[in-house]
Amino acid sequence: MTLACLLLLAVTPAPAGELDYAPASAIVEKARGAWFRKVVSPEGAAFEGLEAWGVLPKPSFDPAREHSATPGEDAYKSGPLDRPDVYLGLHADGAEVDAGLIWDRVYDRDGRDTGEFAYRVYWRTSKGGWSNPAPGAADDLYLRPGERFALTLRALPDGSARLSVRRAGADAASAGYQFPVPGLLAANGSLKPLSFKRVHSLDQFRLEGGRRRGNEGRPALPTRTALEGGRWEGAHLLRSDGSRAAMAGGLATVARGVDAAGRYGAVFPGAGVGKGGAEEMRILPPRS
Q1: No. of helices (H) and no. of strands (E), the chain
Q2: By three-state DSSP, how is residue 34 classified?
């Protein structure tokens, strides 16, 4: 069955007997600064990509964590200090990619800030920094909470990666983005062993001297912001021969951040990976 067909199916939550509520898990000591639910595949040469699809979650924001840009600060930094993020990623020794949809400002066809927010395409690499499509460009896609989406991330033989984003439906908007990934190739020119991840999270900013700063590497912050109503309907690892394997069971390990590890069930209520890689997207961070 093609991904397009899968997107048109009405997918309901799997019965409890079809869920693995206790997959392998590991606490990632260095992963701090956000409330994230991350599922990771084993590292190796068996897979070259990951596709995942579902319904985007609806955020409700903490009014106490809204920021207005101060004089001298870029205007785009105004807005919520908690940032919903639904994305895929890949890892190799010396190379990292995050790519997907993140809560961001909406720009019109002329590249002007509309004052609205939605899920916007982005990608970043460990050595190449952060990128979005150019504001106003045809591939500067925006998706809304409750919309169905599909993401595909592939490592390519030339050491680049390709992200594909689409909405559900035969005539829905879609776009592809190819970008270099420094460090992805071994000395002999082949791809290094890879692992893949799918993540839904509330990324966070903090304020320093009244200005917005990234919170990575710091303790995650209490907030009344929450994500609910979303769902991964499936996630498949991709082989070079075109075959697929569900990212579930022995092909899925939960990577827990230290901030949530001691209260994981409360922050991610009902979390469990289905046999096809399905899972609810729900994040309820501690409020104090």
Answers
A1: 3, 22
A2: strand
Average pLDDT, the chain: 91
DSSP 92-143: ETTEEEEEEEEEEEEE-TTS-EEEEEEEEEEEEETTTEEE-PPTTSTT--EE
Token pair in block for residue 156: 């390519």
At residue 197, the pLDDT reads 98
Long-range CB pairs of 96-99, under 8 A, 24+ apart, other chains included: 96/125, 96/126, 97/123, 97/124, 97/125, 97/126, 97/153, 97/161, 97/181, 98/123, 98/124, 98/199, 99/123, 99/124, 99/151, 99/153, 99/161, 99/163, 99/177
pTM confidence score: 0.91
> With 70 as the cut, is the pLDDT of residue 10 above it?
no
- Is residue 127 a contact partner of residue 95, using CB atoms and an 8 Å limit? yes
pLDDT digits (tens, 9 = 90+) for 235-244: 999 999 999 9
Question: Which tokens sit at 12?
Answer: 């309901």
Contact in structure between 125 and 95 (CB atoms under 8 Å):
yes
| Confidence (pLDDT) at 23 | 58
Residue with tokens 């070079």: 240
Q: How many CA atoms lie within 13 A of 48 on its CB side?
A: 17
d(CA 288, CA 278): 30
Per domain, the residue ranges of the chain are: 3-7+25-283
Residue 124 to residue 181: CA distance in whole angstroms: 9
Measured in whole angstroms, the distance separating CA 206 from the mean position of its chain's CA atoms is: 20
